[in-house]
Amino acid sequence: MAVNLHIPAQEDIFGVPGIEIGVTEAGVRKANRRDLTVFRLAEGTSVAGVFTLNRFCAAPVQVCQAHLAQAGNGIRALVINTGNANAGTGEPGLAAANATCDAVAKLLDIAPAQVLPFSTGVILEPLPVDRIVAALPKAVAALGPNQWFEAAHGIMTTDTLPKVVSRKVQLGGKDVTFTGISKGAGMIRPNMATMLGFLGTDAGIAPALLKELAREVADNSFNRITIDGDTSTNDSFIIAATGKSGLQVNDRAHADFAALRQALVDVAAELAQLIVRDAEGATKFITVKVEGAGSTEEALKVAYAIGHSPLVKTAFFASDPNLGRILAAIGYAGIADLDVGGVNMWLDDVWVAKNGGRNPDYQEADGQRVMKQPEILVRIDLGRGNVTDTVYTCDFSHEYVSINADYRS
Amino acid sequence: MAVNLHIPAQEDIFGVPGIEIGVTEAGVRKANRRDLTVFRLAEGTSVAGVFTLNRFCAAPVQVCQAHLAQAGNGIRALVINTGNANAGTGEPGLAAANATCDAVAKLLDIAPAQVLPFSTGVILEPLPVDRIVAALPKAVAALGPNQWFEAAHGIMTTDTLPKVVSRKVQLGGKDVTFTGISKGAGMIRPNMATMLGFLGTDAGIAPALLKELAREVADNSFNRITIDGDTSTNDSFIIAATGKSGLQVNDRAHADFAALRQALVDVAAELAQLIVRDAEGATKFITVKVEGAGSTEEALKVAYAIGHSPLVKTAFFASDPNLGRILAAIGYAGIADLDVGGVNMWLDDVWVAKNGGRNPDYQEADGQRVMKQPEILVRIDLGRGNVTDTVYTCDFSHEYVSINADYRS
Fold first, then answer.
1. Which of B250, B277, B304 is the last residue of a domain?
2. Among B126, B189, B358, whose Cβ lies nearest the Cβ of A124?
3. Segment B354-361 long-range contacts (CB within 8 Å, at least 24 positions apart)
4. Full domain range(s) for residue A83
5. Catalytic: which of A45, A52, A177, A194?
6. Residues B86 and B235 in one domain
7. Which stretch, A134-138, A198-202, A266-270, B154-158, has highest mean pLDDT?
8. What ipTM was predicted for this assembly?
9. What's the mean pLDDT in B401-405?
10. Does B308 touch chain A (CB under 8 A)?
11. pLDDT at position A184, please?
């Protein structure tokens, strides 16, 4: 049921010089499924990441944070399994994540702290670490220069399609590559990042700057989507910059900084939106744009209230312009002094609510026309200030219930 | 699909001396449906209410607040329509609510400010006030001493069954009656009150005390339930105390105050829980009890995060003990310094999570057994303090999606 989600052709996916990827089957949860992925990063690659703020953050997230703090610039490998989140697993979970790093390190002749581990799948079940360790030599043997598509497959859970975005951009006279992958498709309300996004580039970016950029890029991409409001235990977004293009950007004063930042944001935003397009059971892709807010916090409160309302989401599923539900969500979003008389709402080009009430010129047929589209823009003007922000979400269907009632089966 | 919701027999519903009720058909939205209810309250009745905090609060809510402020102790009538919420309707909506009060006042020979209006149904559509005004004489003609059951019918929207709770309690040597009605069954996450609860008693309660009690009773009943997290535009909870029993309580020092308060809380809590039992599409009644919290706010953050998670709710629907989803919800509930190592979780008597991880003794078969029950207790110990609080909610089914995709059809 993915909404306008197109997979690029293999020739449109550019390998990133300095990054090799290998994918294999480890039988983590199901047989005959590519579920184990290894990234090898060239020496000198800068790596930065942002991670979930969920207090029950998974064991691999804790290990990632420790290794990034220890190894700093020296991260040389990523290892990712699907089928099991290794979350809610306590000390044995940490031991399993560390054992995975140890095994990768031995195979690649690096230190365990140079490996970042990632897991996705069911929570509260022990990670079958022996099966992962046993399959790692196959993943390492499969390492090759452009296996992004295979990796996008290898990290899927309830995703129906693999998610890859790839661009080449001329920066500072160099051809610079940006390629990334992501996965959803439920428990998605990233708070700092999403499970899982990986973005590689052969631009060179100084580690301190990349650390700042990882946060900024996440805030403009993964931190602006929601499927079900459930912030995952495993959200992780990683940028790896190998420097192999010859472009090296060390600070914001660099002539190519703005274009580089924009390229990273563009690729990450597209990866994030692909998650929404492939959201569990989604039939509609909804853009919620809040204008006239007094602050970013206000804009996001309203956008997320709309994006999380089961009543709003089921109305979209039904193509029913029951738009009072959107007003109700604005009203309970938590802006205590909101003057509803200043609120206006449009559905694409249709002006639905005017100064807090139904626009006298609004015709239900016009609302109906827009609601039937697969892509819909909800635009709100709060009439309080100059801040605009946008969140991407989806509808709520029978299929969502089916998928999440059956997920472990 | 109501969960263990039993309608009392007519002989178990006690009329409240001093309160007459009349119900009729006005054709607000559908023909042949009792959709208009009038309460007449005896002179001297104390009335207090609490209302939604939704900033898009409906026109009748605004009028209720104004009339309670003006008329104080002198409220003599309530008028309630279903089929249309008169919310998001701007100035014409206020005019319609006022016109309804005017018409009731004329028929009952009282002032318009002595009437409280209530509406429930679809938002953002004009109230067909002419049809309501035309039908009011029939409702007034139907006024009788014990029509609570008919009124419970007359305020239903997507409710499958009418909700009435009635008790007689010996207080101060008097037989005191408490009878109330409520309705749900979607857009339910009361923030101060719910749409709609009415509780009548023939106890006499001083107006100032009743005002305090309305808030306290709501906080211990309607403000502890959630169905879909959508706080309605129309939530209203009203207590009317006629004094006809001869018992008169004017302050908290009265010998019968504690028992009176408890009787009000008991009836209101049962009315609130009936809404959850008849929640849209519900197949399970879930009690979420959070112990060991540092504050009420913390306990409620955790309880509502669990109660609102679509992933948790679909797992209950499926009877699937995918209980890591509950840990994830605890983790993102917003307690920034939560030490997950102190968290324990039980499903009824089954100890699932121990010190932040899977209890080594937990057997999936035990979780499965509890998940299959129609009533389930989720008990969390946060290990942070001594505060306990409880929220009541339900599962999330295909039927919820169907109902809310079709609600206006």
1. B277
2. B358
3. B355/A90, B356/A56, B356/A88, B356/A90, B357/A88, B357/A89, B357/A90, B357/A91, B357/A92, B357/A93, B358/A88, B358/A89, B358/A90, B358/A124, B358/A125, B358/A126
4. 10-277
5. A194
6. yes
7. A134-138
8. 0.86
9. 86
10. yes
11. 84
